Amino acid sequence: MNEWYTLGVVGLVIVAVVFAIVRFRINPVIALALGAAAIGLLTGLGPADTVATMTRGFGDVMMEAGLLIAWGVLIGAMLNEMGAITRLVDGLLRTFGRRGVPYALGLSFATYLQTIFIDVMIVIAAPLARRIAPRLGRYGTGIMGVAFAVGLEAGIVLMVPGFAAVALAGLLGVPLGVMLIGGFAVVVPTVALTILLMTIGFRLGFWTPERDEKAVVEDAVPDASAEPAHVKVDTASAPRIDTTPTGTVRTAIGGVPHGHTLTAERTQRERPLILLFAPMLAALLLIAVQAVLTVMEVELAAMQFLGNPVIALLLAVIATGVIGRSAIGTKRIEKSLVKGFQDGGQIFVLTGVGGSLAAVIAEGDLGSILQGYFQATTFAPILVVWVMAALLHIAVGSVTLSAITAAGVIAPVASTLGLNPLLIALAAGAGALFCIHVTSNTFWLLQSFLGQSVRGALKTVTVGVSLASVIALAMTLLLAVFI
Is the link from the previous residue into 161 a cis peptide, with omega within 30 of 0? Predict the structure, then answer.
């Protein structure tokens, strides 16, 4: 089949999916599934293979991220019930100030909190973002969306131990220490400048809360006989929460009058905040240690088990539940687990169907098609690898795959050009950030967990991270002057 026909079909279907969701408000799950089926049928994959590929794509995503999402949702639900998120928000606001919190979070995600498991970070930290957003004003949800999207995505391709960054370093023979330093030099200004510029854009009218935001999960009608001590504050309902300067939570839901301090918050004052977050932090530490051991080619059977994300986060779920039972009682912890499972259902389906679309697109081997139009050249090789990675990502929807493919094409001639392989790695990573859209499961996780409509996610994730991609390219070109 003609290559341009294949490229055209994929491009038109993706545009049609986005238009259907934004303009006609078709449910994203339905639109993505129809888009995947259309691409398969129109590109000659055939009815049977189209269905098989969609099913395999769904299963692959669930196999990779399903349990991680489940454990993360449950940890977040219990922390929310215990009031830990509210207290952490107050601490961040006191430390960094209202305007500094998005930068603090974005840079934290992109540097020292960067792990290879981006989905875990999203589901655990999303309740924190939804608590902070109302305190940032009318555009808070958009600002927090950008901070999350840019920090997490830029870190995974530019900053060790991000999986793609480690893969690029290995492919190009860049020492991890050099990749760490070079990535830090690029990612810090990239994240800070992107958040700043997008915030300015939102304040100038680029963000419309009425159309770009939506409630994550609506509160169930509470039992009228329930005691005030058992009333739950839902992170998804942040606009209904009023927090005083001293951090006292006040609410008007469930029959609790304004000014009534929740018993849960009084109970939490008796528990150190570090204790509540200790299981989650310990799990992330185990995961990070195992990642370092893997890079160093050190095999320890105990760490291979405990440092596996599925096991580490499962242990965190158990430990958080034990702490929660002692803090607020078994009944409330069990209720939070039930609600966590309810909230996670829609995320599983949306993420899985996004994987179906990506699988059908990848089945058409668009990566190989696009590679044929590019050859390594002495003319602006950094720009070439950036453009190649950007186009590959638009086509196949994989940040890691597009970065590695683009770097691999130019790597063989890098030495003859006198080009530092670090610059190739950074350019490939920067280009792979361009235009993250509906084929990415990260797009749907950020859209669902941060209370954005699809229109809003296209602004924070697609536009915001694309801006970061361009800024990262500029930072890489600037770095090339000095190395």
Answer: yes
- Contact call for residues 412 and 387 (beta carbons, < 8 A): no
Question: What DSSP element (H or E) covers 114?
Answer: none
State the DSSP H helix or E strand holding residue 430, giving kind and residue range, or none if neither. helix 421-432
- Backbone phi and psi for residue 358, each to the nearest 5 degrees, phi listed first: -65, -35
Cα–Cα dist 439/358, whole Å: 5
Q: Is the pLDDT of residue 383 over 90?
A: no
Q: What is the longest distance spanned by two Cα atoms in the chain?
A: 77
Residue 412 domain flag: no
Domain boundaries, position 262 = 6-368+429-480
Angstrom distances, CA of residue 332 to CA of 76, 318, 335: 14, 15, 5
Q: How far apart, in whole angstroms, are the C-alpha atoms of residue 422 and residue 456? A: 34
pLDDT at 102: 93
Say how far apart CA 395 and CA 388 lie, in whole Å. Answer: 11
Residue 353's nearest CA partner among 43, 18, 28 is 28
Would 411 be classed as within a structural domain? no
Terminal-to-terminal C-alpha distance of the chain = 45
- The answer to whether position 383 is within a domain reads no
CA nearest 389: which of 444, 481, 470, 463? 470
What is the tally of structural domains in the chain? Answer: 1
pLDDT tens, residue by residue, 318-364:
999 999 999 999 999 999 898 888 777 777 887 788 778 778 877 76
Handedness of CA 29, 35, 38, 39 (dihedral sign): negative
